[in-house]
């Protein structure tokens, strides 16, 4: 009644005096009953003031909010009731004081007393209604408080925060999306709350934000939220991780290349998810979409941006200051004008491309992440495959930039060939094949300085000698075939390191050697592979490994469908290239006598095959040797040697073929292979015609020898020389074994 009288008299000083007395002497009194009375009095003042209460809100609200911290729960309830009445009367006038009201309410939301909590909920609903109705809400001033309180660990406080975010998001005039980067991290933390209700509320809030992002992608600050998503994509909580991954998927698809600078972080989060089992199938599927979408953002222009920037430079000033004649000056002027026009065109094209591309690719960061994942032996198979797909994609799209990292990637790519999964090895071979064949890896001459400084004795990179580099003696047949496509320096480095790996890991050679080489023949040029490997093995110091490797290569050459074309090329030796290849292979094949004979059978050099078999009498015949002869007999019965078996019908022109086969028969003990070959030779018609009569027409083999210009005598001498080395090596190994036995006895 008193306040109403003062309002009627417009006596503001007396109104303030009454409010001050109620605040200082009652609401803030030490006596609890006085505080209760003060709170009731302040509420009564607000009711009496009516629409004028907005003029005194600061004086009315502050003492009430102080009582929110009172130890007495009944006092906190009275304070809540008083503030409800004050806000109900003032309505929109309380919005300038929203932050302090929100701060007080956030504390009451976690109050242990149910009555206080119930009262605070009524006040909270009233305040939400006021904010929803008003168009004067100060969102900018509120965001710092929201950002601070969103990290509360109290469940009720979190529920209070989420409810307010949902309300603000629903108000058309309030654009909370602009400030989403400020609160997104806190929202994801609340999403991990133990309460299902709070998690559901937070999920709804995040869903509403994502809908808004899809509607208005042009106004979204994708870059500011990218790292937040990267962090939560690695969360231990499945719901947080799945939600963050879904957001990441939408961000990559909506923002496009804006996300490229964050590629390394995104890959760090996404790649491990690709190996999840069915328990996390949803996360795995979304992560796979993220990975594929991000990969598509890398374009060939990313390989040219640095060059485009560097090309827009001023021409260097001439070093000479001598005067230029008029014609020269005119030509200089024309050239300068042409340069200026060209530069302007380049500048405009670069600016246009930079507008389109917008951002540059952080290739160093991406490669570092991929390299770390390849080194991590604990990662799953699908992750390793994804890493190798990324490397292959980068070598295709940005080869020049990627070759800066090849030296650091090469060792781990070679080690990955020992992976347990065939799929991983296939992808690894694709990457290595791209490295070995990409024009971007080609440098001056045959390769980089690294390639030219290597020595065969160090088992390092060796470049096959060209025709012009061959000396007249001792190097016949080592020419690198001019018909094969030119490979870059990494091709030879790859071949040498692959053979070194086979040498150090014999189990890899036994279990995966043929698989690896066959796949490489599909991915690269088969002739180049065999030519280079044969050349490297020719200088191999470990003779036992050289023999094993030659046997493996020969089996692949004779049996693999991938090498059909190469076999046809060697079968006739019609071209200089095929003859050069035969000579190169022959010299290395000499590490294994039986494979050398099989190569002669393949190339239809039957007379030379017969001459080789004649030399077998001087060799040490071991069980392994006889086993290889047995396998050769089995091969002769295979479809690959159909033409050889048909040539047995032409006894007159192929006497040395029959002699060579009889030579093999004489080498074999009485076994199944002996019976097989014996039965085959019994089918040869007119065996008495095996010996050619004097003056008869030269055999096909003789014709070939004359036409091919191959020095078979020199090749035969080379075979004897290599076999002598093997004999000495076996004796040395036997001597060392005998000495070891003596030491054991002693």
TrEMBL record:
Where does the UniProt annotation place the signal sequence? Answer: none
Q: Where in the cell is it found?
A: Endosome membrane; Microsome membrane
Swiss-Prot/TrEMBL keywords: Endoplasmic reticulum, Endosome, Membrane, Microsome, Repeat
Q: Would the keyword Hydrolase turn up in this protein's UniProt record?
A: no
Q: Which Pfam families match?
A: Vac14_Fab1_bd, Vac14_Fig4_bd
Annotated Vacuolar protein 14 C-terminal Fig4-binding domain residues: 506-684
One Gene Ontology cellular component term attached to this UniProt record is: PAS complex
Major localisation: membrane
Q: Which InterPro entries match?
A: ARM-like, ARM-type_fold, Vac14, VAC14_Fig4p-bd
Q: Which GO terms describe its biological process?
A: phosphatidylinositol biosynthetic process
What role does it play?
Scaffold protein component of the PI(3,5)P2 regulatory complex which regulates both the synthesis and turnover of phosphatidylinositol 3,5-bisphosphate (PtdIns(3,5)P2). Pentamerizes into a star-shaped structure and nucleates the assembly of the complex. The pentamer binds a single copy each of PIKFYVE and FIG4 and coordinates both PIKfyve kinase activity and FIG4 phosphatase activity, being required to maintain normal levels of phosphatidylinositol 3-phosphate (PtdIns(3)P) and phosphatidylinositol 5-phosphate (PtdIns(5)P).
Q: Which family does it belong to?
A: Belongs to the VAC14 family.
Subunit and partners: Forms pentamers. Component of the PI(3,5)P2 regulatory complex/PAS complex, at least composed of PIKFYVE, FIG4 and VAC14. VAC14 nucleates the assembly of the complex and serves as a scaffold by pentamerizing into a star-shaped structure, which can bind a single copy each of PIKFYVE and FIG4 and coordinates their activities. Interacts with NOS1.
- The protein's name: Protein VAC14 homolog
Q: Which organism is it from?
A: Chauna torquata (Southern screamer)
Recorded name of the encoding gene: Vac14
